[in-house]
Specification:
With about 190 residues, the chain is α+β, with helices and mostly antiparallel strands. Helices cover about 50% and strands about 25% of the residues. The strands form 2 sheets. The chain has a 4-stranded antiparallel β-sheet with strand order 1-2-3-4, with no helix packed on it. A 3-stranded antiparallel β-sheet has the order 5-6-7.
Length: about 190
Amino acid sequence: MTTKYHSSYLTSGCWSPTRAGVFFVTRMDGVVDIWDYFYRQNEVAYSHKVCDPMLSSIAVQGTSQSGGKLVAMGDVTGTVSLLELCESLAVPQTNERKAIDLMFEREMKQEKNLEARERELRRQRALETDKSTREAQDKKDAKDEKMEALLRKVDADFLAMIKEAEDDESKAAESSSMDAGGQDLINEDK
């Protein structure tokens, strides 16, 4: 539950001691707003320009049993203004306390549900982030494993090529030494 936006800042506020759904708000522009949540939750019930200076405090006379008709407001210059309220803003209505309590209970439940939903969304986002991080790490690990396998294969192929080249060289050396040894025998026979 919030009040409507206004360009003038709120300076003070209080609840009515006799009406559970009525509260008062003073503003910097010298206006007092009276809200009656029992009848309207989205509009000010009554707005009154008290003075030009900024209102700085407010108090409502009375107890929960009686009173509630006189409202005192102080401004920053030290002036106190009294406002007498009509009966409808001062006298409790039938079942008002119960209705306002139920309204606040609904609002608190809604707030708790919204907070729980927000926590659930944050938890889901965290899980999705963790999952994508794990998937990215798994892809990186898979690429690393593929790269290692490729490097092992290239290394094995390289070593096989070297061994083959060495074998070819040794065979060539043996055959040339045999050829040279055979030539020596042929030359000796002559």
